[in-house]
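Here is the promised in-class demo. Please do not try to memorize the tokens; focus on the logic of going from shape to residues.
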């Protein structure tokens, strides 16, 4: 009996999920930390997908499959698809209409670039298509190469949108040992 690599199985399920979404006629790409980790040659601990499909469309796609579907945060565009070896969060492309420091009112969209503008850090605002091509709208690859952490856009605005981004920054710094840019540090100190 041939052995299997459990890390490979953990990738194959999200890849199958991505293909099903594409086959249903929607746009979809891997997004965020899983793209970052793959660029760093690390095995992602989980996979996220950004898609033009709305939550109800994702639920419909996976309704009669071996995958389970959990409506994790439908109001914010997120559905979790659970397989035998992994769970994958699928979030509709979106943009923030209003934020209060923790929760956002979102509007669904169809642009990966617009979606990237609402993400926290440049290194988490990248997308990878099914062929492995990376879409990087904010210089995340360059920041990874420089071991550098910075917010997408205005750091003050990113923190105001979601105060938990400060904790995520600490977690990423402690995990990867990144340097933090001066604007990000001053935004932290200015709150």
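The designed amino acids, position by position:
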């Amino acid at each position: 009996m041939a052995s299997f690599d459990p890390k490979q199985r953990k990738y194959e399920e999200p890849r199958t999920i991505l293909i099903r979404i594409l086959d249903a006629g929607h746009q979809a790409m891997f997004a965020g930390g899983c793209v970052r980790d793959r660029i760093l040659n690390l095995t992602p601990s989980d996979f996220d997908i950004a898609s033009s499909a709305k939550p109800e469309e994702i639920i419909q796609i996976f309704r009669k499959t071996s995958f389970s579907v959990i409506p994790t945060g439908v109001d914010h565009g997120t559905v979790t698809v659970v397989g035998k070896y992994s769970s994958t969060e699928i979030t509709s492309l979106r943009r923030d209409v209003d934020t209060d420091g923790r929760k956002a009112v979102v509007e669904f969209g169809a642009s990966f670039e617009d979606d990237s503008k609402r993400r926290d850090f440049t290194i988490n605002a990248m997308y990878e298509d099914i062929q492995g091509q990376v879409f990087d709208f904010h210089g995340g690859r360059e920041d990874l190469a420089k071991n550098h952490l910075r917010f997408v856009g205005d750091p003050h605005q990113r923190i105001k949108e979601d105060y938990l981004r400060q904790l995520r920054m600490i977690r990423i710094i402690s995990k990867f040992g990144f340097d933090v840019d001066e604007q990000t540090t001053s935004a932290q100190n200015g709150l």
